[in-house]
Each structure stands twice: as C-alpha cells, then as structure tokens.
C-alpha cells in the first residue's frame, strides 16, 4: 500500500503499516472510509461519511492490520459432496390444524342449529413428491435410526392414522377428514417438542414406494 490519501489535508502521507497499524479506527489522521464503495460491479456514494455498513465502527479494530488482496484467492477444494435429493417435500408453511366439521352443530327442538365447541382437529398440509409415497401420522412417538431406515414407535398405536397412499405429483393436498386429533386431552408440555426428550409429539412419516434410494422421512 505505502500511501494513504487524506481528504482533510488534501495531500499524500507516507505511512508505515507495521509501526502505525494502518486500518485502525479511529485513524490518527485522515478518514478511514472513502466517499464511495463498489458493490456488484457498481459504484455507490456513501450516504453517511465514516459509517461502517456491516456493523459498529468499533468492530473495525478486530480486522487485520493489512488490507486483503483483491481479487480474493479461490477457495480450496474440499472433499467431494453429493447433493441430497428428497423425493417428498412437505411445505412447512402449509401445515396446520383445521377444526373437524363433525359435531360443530346440532339441530335443536325448534329446528334451529346449536353451535357446539369441537375439540377434534384434522391435519392438513401441501406436499410435492417425485414418486409414489405413503404418509402416516404418529403421535408421541420415539425415533430409532438403523441401517435399514428410520422407525417410529408411538406410545399408543391406536392413535396413529392409517397409511395413506399418493401418486406422484406436485402441489398435492393432504386432507383426511376421517383422521382426527384432540389436543385438549393432553398437557401443553406434552404437545411442545423438547429436544432433550426422546418423545416427538407429532410425526408425519413419508416413505417413497418406488426404488430403494431417496426415501424421505
């Protein structure tokens, strides 16, 4: 580097990098930043002089005392990687509980409908699959990983749903009104997932039914 341009003094000052520790904030003289910066190959004027765009100004002292050469050296080659391909993808933002339509109302003696507070819910979500798949829902289950795959053991097998089979396709809707879940029967702590416990409150198990690779759980 060897020279530091000072806009305040409008001159050129010779700086010893080793002894004076260039790139130290605040600098003894001159300005730390220029009047513009380059991003994405375009030039942008600095809206606030002496403002660090990516943190606090005090963080600048954690940087090295020497500038980083540009262009940057290419990254070192790592071990070969293999892209993970999931044949079944559940769109997490679509997952929801929907109040079951059964028992929402009943006819009164005068023929009017009386509203009933239902506590049964259906589980609905949207998913995509590149192969035929089978979907099963387990409650309060434990997970066991082995060489043959993943196995889920529910606390009460009678609560588990039947296995539903779907064809290959995108934007499919999982909506089975015959399977309901009543969260009011359980404590809130049971329904919250705790990574320190082995119990998983609700598990949606998706398994492809074509080939031996790419099973999605």
From TrEMBL:
Q: Which UniProt keywords apply?
A: Metal-binding, Transferase, Ubl conjugation pathway, Zinc, Zinc-finger
* Top EC class for this record: transferase
Its UniProt entry gives the catalysed reaction(s) as:
S-ubiquitinyl-[E2 ubiquitin-conjugating enzyme]-L-cysteine + [acceptor protein]-L-lysine = [E2 ubiquitin-conjugating enzyme]-L-cysteine + N(6)-ubiquitinyl-[acceptor protein]-L-lysine
| Recorded GO CC terms | cytoplasm
Gene Ontology terms describing biological process: protein ubiquitination
Please give one Gene Ontology molecular function term for this protein: zinc ion binding
Q: Which InterPro entries match?
A: MGRN1/RNF157-like, MGRN1/RNF157-like_N
Domain MGRN1/RNF157-like N-terminal positions: 118-208
Pfam families the record matches? RNF157-like_N
Enzyme Commission number(s) of this protein: 2.3.2.27
Regions that span the bilayer: none
- Name the UniProt record assigns to this protein: RING-type E3 ubiquitin transferase
Question: What is the protein's species of origin?
Answer: Timema genevievae
């Amino acid at each position: 580097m060897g020279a530091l341009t000072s806009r305040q003094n409008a001159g050129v000052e010779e700086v010893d990098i080793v002894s004076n520790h260039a790139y130290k904030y605040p600098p003894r003289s001159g300005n730390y930043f220029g009047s513009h910066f380059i991003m994405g190959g375009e030039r942008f004027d600095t809206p606030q002089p002496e403002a660090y765009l990516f943190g606090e100004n005090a963080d600048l002292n954690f940087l090295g005392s020497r500038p980083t050469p540009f262009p940057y050296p290419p990254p070192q080659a790592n071990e070969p990687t293999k892209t993970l391909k999931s044949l079944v993808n559940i769109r997490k933002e679509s997952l929801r509980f929907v109040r079951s339509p059964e028992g929402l109302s009943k006819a009164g003696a005068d023929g009017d409908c009386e509203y009933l507070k239902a506590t049964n819910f259906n589980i609905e979500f949207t998913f995509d699959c590149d192969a035929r798949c089978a979907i099963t829902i387990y409650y309060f289950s434990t997970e066991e990983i082995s060489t043959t795959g993943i196995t889920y053991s529910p606390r009460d097998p009678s609560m588990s749903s039947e296995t539903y089979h779907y064809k290959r396709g995108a934007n499919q809707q999982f909506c089975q009104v015959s399977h309901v879940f009543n969260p009011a029967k359980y404590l809130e702590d049971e329904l919250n997932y705790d990574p320190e416990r082995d119990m998983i409150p609700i598990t949606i198990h998706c398994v492809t039914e074509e080939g031996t690779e790419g099973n999605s759980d």
